[in-house]
Amino acid sequence: MALARYIWIWVALLVLTAITVTTAGLNIGRIAIVVVLAIAAGKSTLVLLYFMHLATEKRVLLKILVPIAITVLAIFIGLTYTDVLTR
Q1: How does pLDDT run across 46-78, given as a tens digit for each residue?
Q2: Would you call 29 helix, strand, or coil by DSSP?
């Protein structure tokens, strides 16, 4: 039963990757980056929940992990925009 779940998650990741590649190839303007980032967030959520087994972890661990992950992401995005603005 668990193997079937992993296979379905893997298929979902492949489909989302195909959608990402297709979206990147389309000329839909600035909305493409929003769509691609949303798909990437969905794929990373699937990987975190199922392949890293966070779906079965205690809620206390998630309450600690989520703010740390958001803070690190904010730092990365902030540093990236700082670099872009100084060019």
Answers
A1: 998 888 887 777 778 778 888 898 899 899 988
A2: coil
